[in-house]
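Quick question: who can interpret this fold?

. . .
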Amino acid sequence: MQAVQSRLTFSPTMPANIRQNVIAGIVVGVIAFPLSIALAVAVGVPPIAGLYTAVIAGGIAAAFGGSRYNITGPTAALVPVLSHAVIAHGAKALPILGLMAGVMLLVMSVLRAGRLVRYIPGTVVVGFTAGIALSIAFGQLNNFLNITGTDASIEHFHERVWDSVRHMGSVGFTTPAIGALALAILIAWPKLPRVRAIPGPLIAVIVTTAIAWYFGLDVPTVESKYGVIPQELPSFDTGFLDFGLMFDLLPLAVSVAILSGVESLLSAVVADGMSGNAERHEPDRELRGQGLANTVAAFMGGIPATAAIARTAAGIRNGGTSRLTGIVHAFTVLAGVLLLGDIAGRVPMTALAAILLVVAWNIAEVPEVSRLLRKSARGDAFILVATIFITLFFDLSYAIGFGIIASMVLLVRQLIRVPAAQQLLPDQTGRIRQVSPELSAMMQARPDIAFFNAEGVLSFYSAATFEYELLGHNRNPLILRMKDVHHIDASGLITLEGVIEHRQKGGGRIILTAIQPELRGTLERFGILALLGPENLFEHTRCAIESIDLPDGHSPHPHGQPPEVQ
């Protein structure tokens, strides 16, 4: 009863917490409004799709996700994948992608894959993020400079860049000047301490829109390219469903689901660190929240979404401490749609391009990429560069797959170099360091016995070296300490069985000692213990030594009998 009452008792500071979360949500909503328009435009769909995504996906993920701090909406990480889908299949592909990715995220949450997603190598994450940033930056050249005459159907990065370069002659003065002004505001504004609380993108949009409108400048705007932004609530729609197209979009949907999961969980980790709170996010619940957000947003005119690290950080810096921040952010964007849709249509496209250039620079993590290239191992540097290039010139899903496989290969190469079985020999001090001084003396008193220590994980990558070490030693008998082995897979079991059979066929004896309790059942089920027999299984190496007759045939045991087998 007391526990229930404590949960229902409101803290005296609750009104202040609500107030600061509402303020933080409004600030993040103001930041998200121009960003949502810019990211939708970068993908190649009307701005309202980005705004609806911030409203629907942002509200649902905040309410049902596993992080109290994450702010969800359209993000730069998904731009290359989504723009590729639009070019190849049209805008109708995006809600299908969102629906498929949402369902995949829900399945991942049921399978408890939240923790697995976090094990994607850091070099791969940095690499594909840098590749995404470069793709976004170069993809905004046409809007930033107002390059005309280019072919919008071109998909590949290098072809799009070359197409833009070929049409540089169409660039005038007015649009680049407005874009440069927006870029200057975005760079300088955060350095002004007294106004830092006001979002720079909002100031850049207001200033450039006002100048273009007041002087009647001939610059492309959101409205001139995409029409008037509808000032209405999102409505439920199933007309986008195309089951034939779903099959074609399956690889892209997998990429979107993985990216959404990775970005959202990375954002949650960053948020946990920034908050200073002992409570941490729930990864599987976060995947479920993102899955629900993407699934519902697909039916409400939205595009695929993830948690946004920058917007999440902005919420925390402005006092956000609960899910209320994300929910208020969604309602703030909705209020902007209903009240400011007409004005937002007058925003110059070049100003939105400037915002995305800054976003691209921020997510590229140039200092981190530089540090990894200069100070990491050559193999890691190769994976980083290769991931960047594959992201740019081929496909993001290929980049992630290559990066993970290449990282696994490098890891296995390193693990192979670690001895799976090491002979126990005295060092320069005359002692066997891996055992106690007493056991070391006892082992050195028996040069007729070969002593080996099995180490780490006996698995497919170490089985060959394990077999080589043991079969390459013809001394008889052999004691193998298993104290440091905590896992053995099928390859390891087969190899160990082969080593035992080989020595037994040659008339030799092999003894296992110090088997970990978690391994004993595995060895018993596979038949290893029965193959050895109880006379060759000991808990302590000392007992195993005492069970082996001396070279002259005498028993070292004082009573002539081996100790009890355990």
Q: What stands out?
A: Strands lie at 72-73, 306-307, 421-423, 450-458, 478-488, 510-513, 537-538.
